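User: Teach me something about this protein's shape.
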Amino acid sequence: MAVLDQPVAAEAITYGIYDADEHYYEPEDAISRHLERTYRHAVRWIELDGRKTLLVNDRLLKLIPNPTYDPVGVPGSLESYFRGHNQEGKEVRDLIEMQRIQPEYRDRAKRIAAMDDQGVDFAWLLPSLGLGLEQMLTDEAETVAAVFRSYNRWLEEDWGYDRDGRIQTGPLISLLDPAAAEAELERVIGLGARFITLRPAPVAVPGRPRSLGDPAHDRVWALAAEAGVVVAFHAADSGYGKYTLDWGEADHFTGLRGSPFSEVLGIHIERPVFDTMAALVCHGVFDRHPTLRVATVELGAGWVPELLRRFRAAYGKVPQSFGRDPVDAFREHVWVAPFYEDDMRLLRDAIGVEHLLLGSDWPHPEGLREPRAALTDFGVLEPDEQRRVLRENLSELSGR
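Assistant: First, the predicted structure itself:
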């Protein structure tokens, strides 16, 4: 297949793009606004050293340095850092630019106007604060369910799950209590949800963790498949700090930076999604639910070639243990949003251009300065391939 020698400039793209990874910043009452009184102790704001911060399960939320999001990082201000261009060895806190929170980060009408200015026809909007909650509440399944119900009611109220064909949002679902997960999924499907958000992690039931592929979760996967709802796995606190703890390091991920050891191992990004996708395939989720569709967002794609290599090796040794070729199962059921630093040609050849998505991570500082900046990275693909990635794939996946 011929490829382009030089990336195509953003100005050469004449169509509006579809972005699978944008974010809102939650207001302070996002969790509490609809939270039943019985559970209000679980998440509360406090003053600490002159700053407002959040206690979850009586523990300080460390994943997000400033959960008020005011001030907040300028979009794309850490792009050079994440592209590996930090030869001076500066700390993230010295590289990130800060600004007052902008209206379009919390106001839906202002966001639509910003999308119009940016040439974005459609976007999935995902949590910021919400992605740090489940890991801190895993010993209280009933509380997690209540917190997510409240959060999802706020989300529907302020943003809507799918109001007008411009923005879709993904309600948070936890599988700690399968019955509660099923009930919440039924509720949000009834309100028009077209995708749901889960963290890439085993189901961390204290003392008896489960795979995502455990039959206990089959009703959730069946509901999603029957309704055509996409299951989106997004970077979160996946609890993988337990592995760095075994090697004598801290067991938590703070802000945007882990240790050199955790960076090399991919403990907070690549390892959780690698394991999650392996579990879905190897534990038969796609065999039992052949129309289920899964997307991975803000998890990059550097893990994909190695996962496919291991699938091939395992299938060659024990084909009787799989319902079908695991590489084929992955390629049929999983869509991937690469990081901007990933090799787009390699990924196209590995899983097919039809299963790649644009994910800008806007307006997060580790994302792009604006969504169309991704066109430079995808410009190494042929024009028809670019259009598939930048628009058509998410259009088909989302039904928009």
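Now, about its shape. The longest strand covers residues 17-23. The chain has one domain: 10-39+104-398. If you'd like, I can walk through any region in more detail.
User: That's plenty for now, thanks!
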